[in-house]
Design a protein that fits this description.
Helix content is 34%, strand content 24%. The chain is an alpha+beta fold and 126 residues long. It has one domain. Strands 2-3-4-5 form a 4-stranded antiparallel beta sheet. Helix 3 packs across helix 4.
Amino acid sequence: MQRSELIDKLVSTWHLNVPERSQLDPPSVSLSEIACAIKKALSDCRFFPSNARPLSDGQAVVESIFEGYFIEQQDSGYIVHAQDHGRHPLLFRGRSSKRFSSFEKAVEYYIANEYEGDIDGIPITA
């Protein structure tokens, strides 16, 4: 697998298996590589990760609820959402959203909040 494919998988799934990790050389990922993978994913789907969707307060939680930060692409720019179901396991409660006019600012905010310095133990470099 090529480096770009490994990074696409890492950024989208938060995981690389042991053989894939051994192919990642150097064993880190840069901010620009992450941004490139996210941009590519957003060209196919309006949300990144593709399984994320904004929910409404009180909406029933199903097993596939996405928790964490995600990016929504809109005509006027980008929205980075953060959501979780909180303490109640059956009803959604809690989402915040921040709008950005540029992809770069949205991705910068997303990376700073979602990854916290590494992805599945793989360091993020500048």
